[in-house]
Amino acid sequence: MGASTMFDIVSSTVIAGILFLMVIRLSAQANETALVYHTNLMVQQNMISLVGVIEHDFRRIGFCADPSKIDNPTEAIRLADSSSIRFWTDVDNNGALDSIYYYVGSTSEAAVAETQNPRDRILYRQTNTGSPLVMQIGVTQFRFRYFDSLGDSITLPVVDPRQVHTLEISMAVESPAPYQLEYTSVGDTLADFQVFWRQLRLAARNLRNR
User: Fold this and answer.
1) CA distance linking residue 133 with residue 73, whole number of Å
2) How many helices, marked H, and strands, marked E, lie in the chain?
3) Which one-letter DSSP state was computed for residue 73?
4) Which long-range contacts (CB under 8 A, 24 or more apart) does 194-197 make?
5) In what order do the strands lie in the sheet with 166-174?
6) β-bridge partners, 137
7) Residue 178: is the preceding peptide bond cis (ω within 30°)?
8) Rounded Cα–Cα distance for residues 42 and 79 (Å)
9) Mind listing the pLDDT tens digit for each residue in 57-86?
10) Cα distance from N-terminal residue to C-terminal residue, the chain
11) What is the distance between the alpha carbons of residues 96 and 157, in angstroms, rounded to a whole number?
12) Are 86 and 79 in contact, with CB atoms under 8 Å apart?
């Protein structure tokens, strides 16, 4: 076997190896892109469903099919803090007042303590004295701001919830286990594995009836 033939064989082997590595790399990138896409899609779909429930509940603050049950709309909100709120509404539209309580758990809860994301929490919704319902796992931000009838921000925690006229909600949700542990840095509002939503100056119709 001549030197030329040997050189051709070695060259072909090297080229084949390079092409093989390129195929593997392209395949890995395609798999990563697909995983990121599906992870983001799942988080976005969960956020859309959650926002629908939240907006429905909050726009009915102070509503009751029997107006005599809550004739003073200023008393509809019972607790207003930075990451929790409790208010009266009529969940079943049956004329009976219901208490709705939204709040987030801690990062040390068993359900999230073992997830790979160190900052995720659970968003809960409790109706009356029933067991809290898990609305979303992977919440990394759930914040409220409250404003009076003049549009001025109310200092937290709100001492007198009767002052609340409108409110702002900010919420961020991340996947409990994103690809390669790529999480949002503290203070960021947007990232590849985070969905952010904010409702500015949400006003329940009944809060305006003062």
Assistant:
1) 26
2) 2, 7
3) G
4) 194/43, 194/140, 195/40, 195/43, 195/44, 195/47, 196/141, 196/170, 196/171, 196/172, 197/47, 197/51, 197/169, 197/170, 197/171, 197/172
5) 77-80, 84-89, 98-104, 121-127, 133-147, 166-174, 194-202
6) 122
7) no
8) 32
9) 999 999 988 988 887 878 899 999 999 999
10) 99
11) 29
12) yes
CA distance 104 to 138: 10
Angstrom distance (rounded) from CA 208 to CA 73: 8
CB neighbour burial string for 5-21, b if at least 16 within 10 angstroms, e if fewer? eeeeeeeeeeeeeeeee
Give the chain's length: 210
pLDDT digits (tens, 9 = 90+) for 152-209: 999 998 999 999 998 999 998 887 655 555 555 544 444 445 778 887 777 777 776 5
